[in-house]
Amino acid sequence: MDVRLRVWRQPKGDVTGEFIDYEANDVSPEASFFEMLDQVNEALNHAGEDPIAFDSDCREGICGACGLMINGSPHGPQQGTATCQVHMRKFTDGQLITIEPWRAAAFPVIKDLVVDRSIFDEIIESGGFISANIGSAPDANAVPVPHTAAESAMDAAACIGCGACVAACPNSAANLFTAAKITHLNLLPQGQPERYLRTVAMVETMEEYFGSCTNFGECETACPKNISIDVIAWMNRDFVAAQWKNLLKAGQA
Amino acid sequence: MTAPTSPILDAHVPDGPIWAKWDKHRFDTNLVNPANRRKYDIIVIGTGLAGAGAAAALGELGYNVKAFTYNDSARRAHSIAAQGGINAAKNYPNDNDSIFRLFYDTVKGGDYRSREANVYRLAQVSNAIIDQTVAQGAPYAREYGGLLDNRSFGGAQVARTFYARGQTGQQLLLASYQALARQVGLGRVQVFTRTEMLDVVTKDGRAAGVVVRDLVTGEISSHSAHAVVLATGGYSNVYFLSTNAMNCNATAAWRAYRKGALFANPCFTQIHPTCIPVSDEFQSKLTLMSESLRNDGRIWVPANPDDPRPPNEIPGADRDYYLERQYPTFGNLVPRDVASRAAMRMIEENRGIGPLKNGVYLDFADAIDRLGRETIEERYGNLFEMYQRITDEDPYTVPMRIYPAPHYTMGGLWVDYNLQTTVPGLFAAGEANFSDHGANRLGASALMQGVADGYFVLPATISHYLSDWLNVDPVPTDDPVFVEAEAAVTAKIRRLLDIGGTRSVDHFHRRLGHIMIDYCGMSRSKEGLEKALDEIAALTEEFWRDLKVLGDNESMNQSLERAGRVADFLELADLMVRDALDREESCGGHFRVEHQTEDGEALRDDEHFAFVSAWEWEGEGVAPIRRKEPLTFENVELTQRSYK
To answer: Do A131 and B74 touch (CB under 8 A)?
Structure first.
């Protein structure tokens, strides 16, 4: 099959970018989206033009390194699928495909389709963990975890940190990402001691950099791991509870 | 090539009965007191399970740690893609498991080419791994009573594998990444993302630091420390098509080798039996379907290779469940090397299935009948989904098509019992070292080793080396050793950019992959390996003459990154082939066609080859020297491995 590409090219973060059109001919419908781009890059390299830069590592939808805005949809046309698992059979012969990087102030472009998502690390550093020093753990079966709690925690923990939720959101909010981690840890008995501290710390860090959630729900649709927007409700509940507890501690409630 | 008089390597294995060695060793190890730890700087390269785990553990202990990753976040290391699970000797299922049995299974599974003491220690610390990761919030699968669930993996007759759906690696890596993030927040660890290590720097024979390249700005800089830990994974990408992530590479380990660290058993590579078969020539990587699927899936090919019926219409009588037929005791759960070779034989006998006749079926119809679709979904849902995305076929109704693919490398930097390489102060952890899996790794043991090395072994052993350097500053980065190393790195980058040829990096990488899979893959012969040596040399010459890398060093340049990695893969490939030629026996994943039993199983030669081959770099264009670490087995009897 043949497809036409309109790709965002930007040599560096501080240089203005633009769309450039390319053609990808004789693409196998069995090829993955990145294999199609590999083919385009091979041709560009051959022609002496700088290949298109994009992040991609595991190519099996789990590392979260990849993420392209394809025809205006984060990760492209297939629900619950990271860019690296989208295959060309999802497109039609002759189709025009527009490819952009994630667009969000908190994710500045580094080059072409590569963006800087390091603020996500900062959110995790502020509280997205359980403080359990190595060596100090009790027997793994000492604390039973209800099956449903473990399963729901796992649903939230499936987040791959790709940033599609932010890219999809009209407000560039990172609530789905932040709430997924908070929910994973707050649902487990092991996560209880730091539950409210964690929630406040992570929400405050998130709000320093990202827009506010207004319940559009675009994030849930864009998420390659189908993380439910319910996690945002869980986070909000714990955030409110944390404020209440703070007031209690201060003798104000 | 072989130097029979070369000194024998001392692995510093402690004396005493096997069960007491680790305890005794920890007592004999010099300590660094908590107040002195902040006087030490440690560099960790790689943030996978071993690297992130080591960085977090060392940070918790109070050392100053700098961790480096080429990814944009520590959370993306390829440990994240491990699917099926992690082994431990908990014996929660009450099926007669024990530390000794896990140790025994691992040594046997490795076809008796691993170091007993290291494997025993691995089994000993395995239980603490489960405790620790549960405390850190890893959402393992649970029974309805809230206790942990287990499943079986290849090469074992007990259920000792803990799992989080088909995403166990993800959940364990995230636990380590979060522990690391906590240390970053506390200011004890600094993480350098999008930064690639390009050389190890030594001074007076010991590790002094590293030279790195900032992948965004191209800046070359040096970092010095009292000790350097390499946790940079394996080298399966030497085959181009493998289950490894696109950027996994051998550069850090290879640079260490060129600076004096010995490289052990480079030809011990694992070709994993259950991957999605290649579908076209543009394919960029292969995708694993977890070994855990063999718990419930049955492997078969049509009895009649020309059977025109779709698989689900072929009745049982017309199917050959060849693993169950050939290995009735272990059935579909034989170890990986055995399963891979059995699949290879089916393809060679023209009994393969699928459009390219390059696969075998992995069928869940019986399991779905027996357990119901919901149970299968809960156990393997994400794997089925991944399969569906790639092949556009629904594995709930049509059997999966699978074929072996390069997946893991048992070989790696030679380390002693302390995980120290032959360069003092330079340590190697996880898949980057060679120590625990012999000639074949059992399923669910890579996660176990990564966490064990990073959380428990390295933090305990590194203090012995560090204790000698109390109040001694690390070598300053303006020392001539760093200046020279930076100049060499810069010159190599210049050289790659200046070739100005006509072929892309991927072109050379693909061709190298073909040579390696054809001659140094699932089966190897003297003739083929000798041919490979010539072909690699010719390809290397062509690479340095005809490579085309556009752009410059001073900005993000992904072709340049890959070019450096492929240059190192070319050199490593040569060493792998030499090692495969030198090892005149078959063992585990190393199958020399000249050495096989009557039924085509690997035939070891314990009399002549019960040793670790550790190769020493002798300089550019000079054949490396093979040194030996003899393997003695005091607790496991050497037998012909049988899974029948």
So the answer is: no
